[in-house]
Design brief:
This protein is of the alpha/beta class and 285 residues long. The protein folds into two domains: 140 residues, Oxidized Rhodanese, domain 1 (3-Layer(aba) Sandwich); 123 residues, Rhodanese-like domain (Oxidized Rhodanese, domain 1, 3-Layer(aba) Sandwich). It is built from eleven helices and eleven strands.
Length: 285
């Protein structure tokens, strides 16, 4: 898919044509489904030869509620038969939110050949592609990560400076969350103490990046939309949501599909900001 700034997406048809390669013990190709509701998604049926990752238990440090450390990331990837040279295709539920977060984490640790399946799990199921409940068991490998690439990640102090300095902050949550009418989507286990948004942030929900079938909008549609919102490539852009997964979709859109040079994901997001004592917040539009 070459219309975008970077070659970061593959189609469902391409994955279907390469299912055999994804099933080889040789680690050249690996297919990964990343979900938060693992037992209701991957375990109930997934693309043949896809590895399943539990986002909460495997792609996060459970003690610090943080990204995996480099050695943890290396251990997880190697244990599932992935090397740093593998071509990895990621997909997942909820319009690829968790897969986009995983993609961002792969890029954080310097993995070059990683892609998203356009449309994710939704598109695959809605279009009646083959599924299975069989789980692959690949030989363990050694994974050597590089990085981390701090250019694509940001932290609380940097967000404070951006807020005070009037730099672009994109809140990708729902308008109800942005206005402070709710703290988090219904059913969310992890929430902040207060509702609202970071002062100076602009509400641009992540759903503007995708079509109803889960696929990404065209480059022209996306560029026109963000130009209209005043989000351009001449300043550093920070995206945030509740815990960093929805903002990963917007980070992916701006950085990978549109080719913006400086886009950062604030993965602490509202769970961190909205729980801090003395942190300023705004409500309403």
């Amino acid at each position: 898919m070459t219309d975008y700034a970077k070659d970061a997406l593959v189609t469902a048809d391409w994955v279907e044509e390469n299912l055999e390669a994804f099933g080889n013990d040789d680690p050249e190709y690996r297919l990964v489904e990343a979900d938060i509701e693992y037992d209701e998604s991957y375990a109930q049926g997934h693309i043949p030869n896809a590895i399943g990752f539990r986002w909460t238990d495997e792609l996060q440090d459970p003690h610090e509620r943080d990204l995996l450390k480099k050695d943890q990331f290396e251990e997880l990837m190697g244990s599932r038969g992935i090397t740093e040279d593998s071509t990895v295709v990621l997909y997942g539920d909820e319009w690829n939110q968790w897969a986009a977060y995983t993609y961002w984490q792969f890029k954080y640790y310097g993995h070059e050949e990683v892609y998203l399946l356009d449309g994710g799990r939704k598109y695959w199921l809605d279009n009646d592609y083959e599924t299975t409940t069989d789980e692959p068991d690949f030989p363990e490998r050694t994974y050597t990560a590089s990085g981390p690439d701090e250019d694509i990640r940001t932290y609380r102090q940097n967000v404070e400076e951006a807020s005070e300095g009037g730099l672009p902050l994109v809140d990708v949550r729902s308008p109800e969350e942005f206005r402070g009418e709710i703290i988090a989507p219904e059913g969310s286990e992890e929430t902040a103490r207060r509702a609202g948004h970071i002062p100076g942030a602009q509400s641009i929900p992540w759903s503007n990046n995708v079509n109803d079938d889960g696929t990404f909008k065209t480059r022209e549609e996306l560029q026109d939309f963000y130009d209209d919102q005043g989000v351009t490539d001449d300043e550093n852009v920070i995206a945030y949501c509740r815990i960093g997964e929805r903002s990963s979709i917007t980070w992916f859109t701006l950085h990978e599909l549109l080719g913006y040079n400086s886009v950062q994901n604030y993965d602490g997001s509202w769970t961190e900001w909205g729980s801090m004592i003395r942190a300023p917040i705004e409500t309403g539009e």
